[in-house]
TrEMBL record, chains A, B:
<dbReference type="InterPro" id="IPR016117">
    <property type="entry name" value="ArgJ-like_dom_sf"/>
</dbReference>
<feature type="site" description="Involved in the stabilization of negative charge on the oxyanion by the formation of the oxyanion hole">
    <location>
        <position position="110"/>
    </location>
</feature>
<feature type="binding site">
    <location>
        <position position="182"/>
    </location>
    <ligand>
        <name>substrate</name>
    </ligand>
</feature>
<keyword id="KW-0028">Amino-acid biosynthesis</keyword>
<keyword id="KW-0012">Acyltransferase</keyword>
<feature type="binding site">
    <location>
        <position position="171"/>
    </location>
    <ligand>
        <name>substrate</name>
    </ligand>
</feature>
<comment type="subunit">
    <text>Heterotetramer of two alpha and two beta chains.</text>
</comment>
<dbReference type="InterPro" id="IPR002813">
    <property type="entry name" value="Arg_biosynth_ArgJ"/>
</dbReference>
<feature type="site" description="Involved in the stabilization of negative charge on the oxyanion by the formation of the oxyanion hole">
    <location>
        <position position="109"/>
    </location>
</feature>
<dbReference type="InterPro" id="IPR042195">
    <property type="entry name" value="ArgJ_beta_C"/>
</dbReference>
<dbReference type="GO" id="GO:0006526">
    <property type="term" value="P:L-arginine biosynthetic process"/>
</dbReference>
<comment type="function">
    <text>Catalyzes two activities which are involved in the cyclic version of arginine biosynthesis: the synthesis of N-acetylglutamate from glutamate and acetyl-CoA as the acetyl donor, and of ornithine by transacetylation between N(2)-acetylornithine and glutamate.</text>
</comment>
<keyword id="KW-0511">Multifunctional enzyme</keyword>
<feature type="site" description="Cleavage; by autolysis">
    <location>
        <begin position="181"/>
        <end position="182"/>
    </location>
</feature>
<feature type="binding site">
    <location>
        <position position="148"/>
    </location>
    <ligand>
        <name>substrate</name>
    </ligand>
</feature>
<dbReference type="GO" id="GO:0004042">
    <property type="term" value="F:L-glutamate N-acetyltransferase activity"/>
</dbReference>
<comment type="pathway">
    <text>Amino-acid biosynthesis; L-arginine biosynthesis; N(2)-acetyl-L-ornithine from L-glutamate: step 1/4.</text>
</comment>
Length: 385, 385
């Protein structure tokens, strides 16, 4: 199940004709209430897509009736014309749902710098509205319609013993280095929580889930995560809700990691002994982004020297004489020196755990990433994909 | 001609047996005076190789008689034993040249985390000393002995109308994102300049040459540039010398760019209209490091949206509505929007010029980089190369 798992939500995913391939490209997720509280986070990229500019504005009111999402075009770097397309999309959905345009969030994903075919999108919103339904099938259709280079739809569902539920969907396989948000993700809940509680829970969850995923260091112009609450169930304990939401977001982030462009290895980089959590994130992220570390992962090569070099230029505080590096449980570097035969570490499997001790404090953090493979180069060197 | 181009220098490059392949792996560059002024810059990586720690110390005195360089091993992350190897290397060269060990700089390059075979290196220093000679052949031998994944030796020579000369050699094809220095480079001059003048000239030249080259964003543990002056010619005008040294360093940097691991495109990223030079460098460097931009270059794809996204997350100040992007002379993005058909830009040749206007100031900077190709992935995924 997906965004339709909680009570009070319907969804649809259809082929509007935005993608030349004719594949599904437009999704609609509607909150039928009785409450319409919402929160969201968007990319910190200074070049923001039109739908991001729009959604940032409407999120200020803490109320959303629906989210319209399209693949087949990012509507980024499209100027006033692109913004008008987003605005018209929200107005169309609002008209159909009998609410105001400011209660409609809009998300887009695809190639940057091309105008969306406005009428095609508006007709698609009408078709999606006509197709709205609750249940598994409609939720999966919505999750499928937002895919770009994703090879599988990514969804999550959780039911709390207290009765409330969380559902979610996400997309993203490249240009993934979220900052305050990631790609497109819609989360739903029937827990009765107000916008402020949702905002607090969402920021806490995103910070340690989507924000700790780094596929290629490229922060998108379109990253958006929206959380809507229908209030169809009882109020939830905020702490329990935040914890469940965090687990759901980490689940979606892991699905994006597993389906990343060209992935052959899923790597988890854990940095400990840092002076601060920020420093631990900085060191782990620098390792995760280093092209030489990523190609070594692809080659199943326990080349810990490249990890040491990356930590060294990351800017994180460290003691070179207390630097330890462990790969898949084998200590390869102890106190800044070789700890034994590097070939003792077996990296031939699909999962790699890299643990680094900086030796200056007690803070730690984890970043999930992937390798840099021939398939990544192939997929991203094709014409304007 | 190379480091032996100025009067007062001899060099040698020999196969000491450090590399298992039996290829040349040890170089010696000797200043025969009458003066021995020197300057140098080393990596800012916090994980510094033993020879970097040594050379940083001896450079404080502003006097060098010689530089010993080896390929076949970085002598980084090798602890006290590695530092003793560097110290013994300097002592051996000093004994042969009749000077103090503090007048000998040492540079190493190769795999991180393995001890160098100390006796092999010391015997190599003796063999190199015996082979010392002036002239073209000896200079080329030295430049060849420091190669790792380089496919060609990289040298430069300049003769000023005033009579003084500059020579130089460098190596480096990957793990190149220098900061205050790049890989291993030895520059020589017969101009009569003191250590302070050399230091000033070298820092000015490096800042706009090696420091503006970024192949893969990975800063090495071993980067070192050393400049030695024999004083065998007349004193040079400091401004003229700095200018000539800058041209020489840019020439060597361009040679490293052209021979980068897996390179199929040489890209120059020019950012203008920045609030400061630092901001221009930040934006240009972020573009140069972005995996999606680099794979698009490999695919000859004028995908300017990826450049816009990279500029947007770089942290540089910019006005999204005044953002212009030009590729190979074709304006593709004007005022943050598509300026026409992107296919008008032809990227099929080996050289690509990317020009970006940030629209907020008048500062500019240029970074040279390369594409991200299958060959880069292939070369760097091989076992512990």
């Amino acid at each position: 199940m997906t965004v339709t798992h909680p009570e009070g939500f319907r969804a649809a995913g259809i082929a509007a004709g935005i993608k030349a391939s004719g594949k599904p490209d437009l999704a609609l997720v509607v909150n039928d209430g009785p409450q319409f509280a919402a929160a969201g986070v968007v990319t910190r990229n200074k070049v923001k897509a039109a739908p991001v500019l729009w959604t940032e504005q409407v999120l200020q009111f803490g109320t959303l009736r629906a989210v319209v999402l399209n693949s087949g075009g990012a509507n980024a770097c499209t100027g006033p014309q692109g913004f008008q397309t987003t605005h018209a999309t929200a107005e169309k959905a609002a008209e159909l749902l009998g609410c105001g345009a400011v209660e409609i969030a809009v998300c887009s994903t695809g190639l940057i710098g091309e105008q969306l075919p406005r009428q095609t999108v508006l007709d698609g919103v009408a078709a999606a509205h006509a197709a709205l339904a609750g249940g598994e099938e409609a939720g999966q259709a919505a999750a499928t319609a937002i895919m770009t280079t994703d090879t599988v739809a990514k969804t999550v569902a959780y039911t709390d013993p207290a009765g409330w539920r969380i559902g979610g969907m996400t997309k993203g396989a490249g240009m993934i280095a979220p900052s305050m948000a990631t790609m497109l993700s819609v989360l739903t809940t029937d827990a009765a929580l107000d916008a402020a509680a949702l905002d607090e829970a969402l920021r806490a969850a995103v910070r340690v889930s989507f924000d700790r995923l780094d596929i290629d260091g490229s922060m998108s112009t379109n990253d958006t995560v929206v959380l809507m609450a229908s209030g169809a169930a009882d109020p939830a304990d905020p702490a329990a809700f935040t914890e469940a939401l965090t687990v759901a977001c980490r689940d979606l982030a892991a699905q994006m990691q597993a389906d990343a462009e060209g992935v052959t290895k899923r790597a988890t980089i854990v940095v400990r002994g840092a002076a601060s959590e920020d420093d631990a994130v900085l060191a782990a992220r620098t390792i995760a982004r280093d092209s030489l570390v990523k190609t070594a992962l692809f080659g199943s090569d326990p080349n810990w020297g490249r990890i040491a070099a990356a930590v060294g230029y990351s800017g994180a505080e460290l003691d070179p004489e207390r630097l330890d590096i462990t790969i898949n449980g084998v200590l390869l570097c102890k106190g800044g020196c070789a700890a034994g035969d590097r070939s003792a570490a077996d990296l031939t499997g699909p999962d790699v755990l890299v643990e680094v001790e900086l030796g200056v404090g007690s803070a730690e953090a984890e970043i999930r990433t992937t390798d840099l493979s021939h398939a990544y180069v192939e997929e991203n060197s094709a014409y304007s994909s």
